[in-house]
Amino acid sequence: MTDVAVPVAEKPLRSPAPASGLLSVLRQRYLLRLLVQREISARYQGSFLGLLWSYINPLTQFFIYWFVIGFLFQMHKDVPHYPIHLFAALIIVHFFTETFVAGTRSIMRNKALVVKMAMPREMFPVATMLVSLYHVGPQMVILVVVCVLSGWTPDPVGMLCLALALLIIAAIGLSGALLFSAANVFFRDFGNIVNVLTNFVRFGVPMMYPYVIVHDRFGRFADLYLLNPLADAVVLFQRAFWVGTVPDADRVRIEQHYGGPMMPDHLITHGVLALLGCLVILAFSQWVFTRLENKIPERL
Amino acid sequence: MATSIVAENVTKEFTLRYHRTFKEVTVAKARGHKTSDRFNAIDDLSFTVEEGESIGLMGLNGSGKSTLLKMINGVMRPDQGSLLTRGRIAGLIATGAGFHPQLSGSENLVLNAAILGMTERELKRKYDDIVEFAGLGRLLDAPVGHYSSGQKARLGFAVAVHVDSDIFLADEVLAVGDKPFRSKCMKKMMQIRDSGRTLVYVSHSPASVERMCSRVIVLEQGRLGFDGDPKAAIHYLEYDTPEDGEELTDEQMGNDI
Questions:
Q1: What residue segments make up the domains of chain B, in order of their start?
Q2: Residues β-bridged to residue B48
């Protein structure tokens, strides 16, 4: 911000358009924090249960999957601690779809601000991502409690996996949000495309089924499956929580039964590569966003 | 004296689309109708504003006043030419933009101040002044969704005039405020003008423009129509011939846009 105490004559003559880009968003942390707070407190304004809804929604989803896939499809028998396996994946999937879907709408929803105020427009997708991240918190609390009750203790590698998983989703979710929020201004179709895309997400990651099945069915093509950064993030997240709860005897049993590893080899390498890939995609999205951005105010 | 706003051959092109859906576009193309039109909302406009000047921006509806203001504000960038400004810009261009109807007045006040570029420390210093200026009392704790349009405008205005700035833009001013608040606002605007800040004032009310501004720029379909003395500008626009014997009085001050 320019300092008003400095005489005007000493300030440079410059373009009034704000510096754009994700970096300038980081420079305006105060505004970003307020926007995130506004979203969080507005979401549950006037609702009786308030923040509890952040627990209720994933929990009900969890019970549906638990009953249908675990009980009806008998996944409980094959996969030890299947509910934890499922819930861990659900948290990651939820974080991604929330960021992607809400982020895509974020610029349209903040029309009034975008048309009139000079601020980096990346602010809105970023704020949406942070709001989604905030809602990961309560879900992780539930997960940790259940894991601890199932004999889980945190380990350093697991925590590294956890951080990688969240970073991957933050990066890929944000790039999707950037790309589609700008595109959505020009054609509302993109909002619908996002809904279609998110349908695939639940099935493209080892959520309902364990990774070991992928290895069993795909054989040497299993590595292709891991090209999907979402699958990497889910596997990493499961490594952080679910793996720690599986007793060695069960692990040996499941690996012998399917004839493959429960977790992919070189998991950390996969994770780091996936994160780098996502950062490249993020840079690309930023590039596209900057090109589209100029026309956004007049098209709203 | 330094220059405050420098516009050189500024052009802003808008594309007007008549059809949006795939179906409509195909049908229109098949019939040989035009599906879109380009026009220049601002067309090769050049002018310079010195620091401390108070400029009235006038013109008929659709002459490009708001587009120009948006470019000065930095929301839009010129397609051709350059528009440069010196110092921080604030104004009544977006009073109440981004108010969240479900949040309380004070929560919105804080957010709005940040959107207008106030830092946390600056807001802390001015919070009480803003609250006093808005004069909403205990209503400030109620959700903004329950406010009348006038009350919303009061809150937005109160925040906007308290932002430190070197250039102050005023658009859509005070169309809804009640009379005591309107005169309070006019006084505040005069204060801003007299403090040596550059003022850009968009209005259709000749009386208030004459009172506020030392120079008037008239836009005509995006081009510079007239630039100079307010009285002459008002005459140029033929705003000085009262219709139906209607008298122009101070009463109309602030009934802008």
A1: 3-29+38-87+166-252
A2: B6
Smallest Cβ–Cβ distance between B88 and the set A2, A113, A297 belongs to A2
Cross-strand pairs, A183 = none
Structural domain includes residue A202: yes
Are A113 and B115 in contact (CB < 8 Å)? yes
Distance CA A198, CA B174 (A): 46
What is the value of pTM for the model shown? 0.85
Domain containing A82: what range? 49-299
Q: What is the pLDDT along chain A (300 residues), one digit of tens a residue?
A: 444 556 766 788 888 887 778 888 888 889 899 999 888 887 777 777 777 877 787 788 888 888 888 888 888 888 888 889 999 999 999 999 999 999 999 999 888 888 888 888 999 999 999 999 998 998 898 899 989 998 898 899 999 999 999 999 999 999 999 999 999 998 888 888 998 998 899 889 998 899 988 888 887 788 888 899 999 999 999 999 999 999 888 889 888 888 888 888 889 999 999 999 999 999 999 999 998 888 888 877
Residue A36 in any domain: the answer is: no
- Order the strands of the B89-92 sheet from edge to edge: B89-92, B167-170, B198-202, B54-58, B215-220, B223-228
The complex's ipTM works out to 0.79
Alpha-carbon distance B87 to nearest alpha carbon in chain A (angstroms)? 6
CATH number for region B3-29+38-87+166-252: 3.40.50.300
Please check whether residue A256 touches B, CB under 8 A.
no
Number of domains in chain A: 1
